[in-house]
Protein: Ig-like domain-containing protein
Amino acid sequence: MRTLFLPPLLLLAPLLLAPPANLWGGAAEALSVVRLEAPRTAARGEPLLLRCTFDLEDGPLYTVKWYKDSREFFRFSPQERPQLRVFTTEGVDLDEHASNATHVRLRSVTHASAGKYSCEVTEDAPSFLALIDLAEVHVVEIDVNAGPPKLEGVHARYRLNEEVTAVCRGPWSRPPAQLTLHLNGHYVNSSSLVRHLPPEERADGLLRPAVKLRARAVAGPDGRLRLRCTAALADAYHMVDEKNAMLVRGRGSTPTATEPSAPLGAADDFPPPTVPEPVLEVASGATLTPPVLPMVLAPALAPPLLLLLPWLLESLLGG
Ligand SMILES: *[C@@H]1O[C@H](CO)[C@@H](O)[C@H](O)[C@H]1NC(C)=O
Ligand SMILES: *[C@@H]1O[C@H](CO)[C@@H](O)[C@H](O)[C@H]1NC(C)=O
Structure:
């Protein structure tokens, strides 16, 4: 319980130990906003531009420091000579001629360039107020020939409730793309229906993800079965493959010549898909709870009752 009363004191401690200049009659600090603009995703081999915007309201600048994953790689100090200082950092191939107080340019990004970048702006004396902003940059690499994902193993027609087995493979990329499946417009992610297979890896380090679906054929709103696979990689790649199948009565599935069944890989350990509960169709709101006893007993009891009927009527009416 006592800890509940400590935070206010802890919050005050920095003020007491290191009072900001304006608290003891100094000038109010002018630095109000620092913002780091960075792309969310950069493609491997491409340059990366980062921009640090800040407003000193005409106050003097002391330094702008740039960090990647908390390691300083670049500093701009207008009052020092040299004004620019570069610190060697893995994944940061700094273009010094295109970097200054507000801009940083990396010539070419690698997977090591991915991480959290920040710029820290410090106002000059007396406040030395510092503000920092941070942005995360993902580095992606996509095979130059990458097309849309591929849905394999979908037949041209299925009977209702027949097993549907399909595999969707994404493009070669790093990191691997995220695959999602939609069956008749509904996102499918139940572990009993969908299994993410281990991605294949190529010699150049690119990965290809795959997802396997095992479900029962059901009709969508248009009477057909629609299977859609989406592959996405941050904001760098977003593509879709879609296959439609007819739902037929009676005779079953015929694989289409162009869609050979995919090899299903080692992780082929699905539990068998569950058969949906049979749905009884009831016309015009009739109830499905018939009086069971009369239906079972009536044929057996009817003849004796018929024989007794005259006697029953006589005893009821006559008396
Ligand atoms: C800083 O560099 C960018 C381009 O990298 C340039 O557009 C900008 O004008 C430069 N700023 C200053 C103050 O030199
Ligand atoms: C799909 O389900 C798995 C576990 O069932 C979960 O870990 C994963 O985050 C889900 N994916 C999405 C996109 O919701």
